[in-house]
């Protein structure tokens, strides 16, 4: 099975090009969400307001729509830190169509090529007891025992291009819609990136929700069908991704040996199943 990766900024440009001028408004910070009859009034920090028949909250794990309208969902911390960047360097031929992840005793490192000349990489370690600045040189030291390709990618990445963040996910959200408001993507079911499925599942959400909105004259009915179709698959991905992330950082040598044996035994069809379409 091959992987096809694309830079997020490039994908956004492709999608934005399909919109008419004025349909996409940027730099909008939501301040309040109130029901007005059968619709919703959205107020923004710049003083503008909009009335809409329905609202789709696609505003990420820290979703203002979720916090203001649903008042549930707990952000769960993995105690793992992730560094991400795009390096101006292609991968050798065997890796150009693969998402490759290497696991070591102190961390893990993943790579995937996003175009002819650039490669996305991520590095993950368990959170240190004392916060300390981590930059390119510290990462080179931490991953010096990994494959030489890892240190080569790090060397091709300028310090200012490296982004650091704690890995988290979202639990406890029972329903993705209430009244004329629905959530999709990370706003509804943020997952850790251990299966590479966060953005993929958000895109699948959008396609499935659009499918039901086209078929139903009632927004709430479309929202209900959307959640029924998507929730079981997404919940499994969130759960599995959390488990894989914890397994990747086991420290006990016997546990590591058992984990590595089990990982080699997993059939390829298990990985392919998460990419199967929800609605054809």
**What is the strand tally?**
11
The helix/strand class is: alpha+beta
Which CATH architecture of the largest domain? 3-Layer(bba) Sandwich
Measured between the Cα atoms of the first and last residue, the distance is 20 Å
What count of structural domains? 2
Q: What amount of the residues lies in strands?
A: 15-25%
- Helix % is 25-40%
> Can you say what the CATH homologous superfamily of the largest domain is?
FAD/NAD(P)-binding domain
The CATH class name of the largest domain reads Alpha Beta
SSE arrangement, N to C: HEEEEHEEEEHHEEEHHHHH
Number of helices: 9
**Measured on Cα atoms, how large is the radius of gyration?**
21 Å
| Largest sheet composition | 5 strands, antiparallel
Q: Categorize the overall geometry.
A: globular
Low-pLDDT regions: none
Q: Average pLDDT value?
A: 88
Strands ordered across the widest β-sheet: 6-7-8-5-9
> In the CATH scheme, what's the topology name of the largest domain?
FAD/NAD(P)-binding domain
Quick recap of the structure?
By secondary structure, this protein is α+β, with helices and mostly antiparallel strands. The chain has 2 domains: 8-73 and 172-273, FAD/NAD(P)-binding domain; 77-167, D-Amino Acid Oxidase, Chain A, domain 2, CATH 3.30.9.30. Helices cover 36% and strands 24% of the residues.
């Amino acid at each position: 099975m091959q992987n096809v990766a694309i830079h997020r900024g490039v994908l956004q440009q492709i999608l934005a090009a399909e919109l008419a001028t004025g349909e996409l408004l940027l730099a909008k910070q939501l301040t309040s969400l109130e029901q007005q009859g059968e619709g919703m009034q959205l107020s923004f920090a710049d003083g503008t307001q909009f009335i809409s028949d329905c609202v789709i909250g696609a505003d990420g794990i820290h979703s203002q729509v979720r916090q203001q309208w649903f008042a549930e969902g707990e952000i769960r911390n993995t105690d793992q830190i992730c560094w991400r960047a795009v390096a101006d360097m292609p991968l050798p031929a065997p890796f150009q169509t693969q998402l490759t992840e290497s696991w070591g005793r102190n961390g893990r490192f993943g790579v995937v090529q996003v175009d002819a000349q650039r490669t996305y990489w991520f590095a993950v370690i368990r959170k240190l007891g004392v916060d300390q600045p981590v930059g390119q040189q510290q990462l080179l030291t931490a991953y010096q025992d990994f494959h030489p390709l890892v240190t080569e990618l790090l060397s091709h990445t300028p310090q200012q291009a490296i982004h650091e963040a704690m890995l988290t996910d979202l639990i406890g959200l029972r329903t993705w819609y209430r009244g004329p408001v629905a959530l999709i993507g990370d706003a509804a079911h943020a997952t850790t990136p251990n299966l590479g499925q966060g953005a993929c599942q958000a895109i699948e959400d959008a396609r499935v929700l659009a499918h039901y909105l086209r078929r139903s004259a009632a927004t709430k009915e479309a929202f209900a069908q959307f959640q029924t179709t998507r929730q079981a698959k997404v919940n499994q991905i969130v759960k599995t991704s959390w488990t894989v992330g914890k397994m990747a950082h086991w420290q006990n040598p016997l546990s590591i040996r058992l984990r590595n044996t089990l990982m080699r035994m997993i059939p390829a069809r298990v990985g392919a199943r998460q990419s199967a379409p929800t609605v054809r």
